[in-house]
Amino acid sequence: MLRLRIILTFLLGVVPGGAITRADDIAPKDRRSGFDMMSAETQAMQKNDLANPAMLWVREGEALWSTPPEGGGQACSGCHGEARISMKGVAARYPVFDASAGTAIDLAGKIQQCQVERQKASPWPRESKPLLSMSSYVGLQSRGTSIVPAHYKGTTEAASRGKALFNRRVGQLNLSCANCHDDNWGQKLGSAVIPQGHPTGYPIYRLEWQGMGSLQRRMRNCMTGVRAEPYAYGAPEWIELELYLMQRAAGLTLETPAVRP
Amino acid sequence: MGAKTRAFGLAAILLLALASSGVMVRGQGITELVVAGEIPRPLNGLTGDAARGRTIITDRRKGLCLLCHSGPFPEERFQGTLAPTLAGTGKRLTEGAIRLRLVDGRKLNQQTLMPPYHATEGLSQVGQNWRDKTIFSAQDVEDVVAFLKTLQE
Lengths: 261, 153
Description:
The complex is a heterodimer of chains A (261) and B (153). Chain A has 261 residues and is mostly helical. In chain A, strand 1 and strand 2 (103-105) form a beta hairpin. The two termini of chain A are 27 Å apart. Chain A has eleven helices and seven strands. With 153 residues, chain B is mostly helical. In chain B, strands 1-2 form a two-stranded antiparallel ribbon. In chain B, helix 3 (50-58) crosses helix 7 (138-149) and helix 6 packs across helix 7 (138-149). Chain B is globular, with a radius of gyration of 17 Å.
């Protein structure tokens, strides 16, 4: 079917002004995690906690959970108790609308907010080791949970802005996220199989990075790949994109911490 | 509407077309070079070098072609499946049709996946390092056209 569409696009492309409409969104029954498109070795690495390098970050997050911050504030555990119980399912429904921030906020942003407002501490910067570690540890508590249909109160508009960003052509190569992840998933881009682009495993250990990275870092890689100017870490556009990605991944299972090629 | 207004209108349209085509090839905008779905003449009257064209195509940072396309490049292990094979391009398309597809395929099909290799207009949020630059120079375009013309099967 995809093949046919490509051939059609090519043939019709010869006709001046030949209009091709973009493929539809991926139907729920066709949704597949990037995990399914990985090699057996990489899948095995993710499935085995002893082999999954991301578990090192998780362990660090676990230690930080009960470590009081500098300045005399309480540890996360002081207010939240056991993460296994209090953080269960949380990562599967973020980003959410945050009344105190007056805007949609992602999980990493929420952790930073607790550091500032509840611990009176300075927040860990985006992509720093402790923030990635804590995000992975909190994320792990939702591993195996379904991503809940993302129609959160106050986030619907942000999610539709995210959808518009997803469908917008950007960069010198003039491609949108949808061009690859809706229209051409399963195809090969050079040596890489194009996944559907689901946010099911973040933060991830990426073999190419030889390290851990957030969803924002992953999306940033895709943007610079089409030679577009990425948004700054923490920018509202990333949160909007994440909201839309969570909507389009509804029903898939959270895998944090995932391994990706 | 008098003849004067019409003439003015026409001039305005021409000016707009020029302004919106960004890249100027020896003082001409892309739109002006297009004749019936082709750019029949070599850009700036340049002569293409087919051997160099092949090198550009297989260079993943320069041509990027094999990210999406496959083709008769047995030494290249990883080739894309997003776009038609380059094999037989020279048989399927005239030189001028190949040239327009490289320069700016949007002139034929707004929805094309093919990046505009020698145009800078109508793009959004181009990264700092690439802003107002084209992917290919006019010479690169001619080299790649010269090589693709040789792909007869």
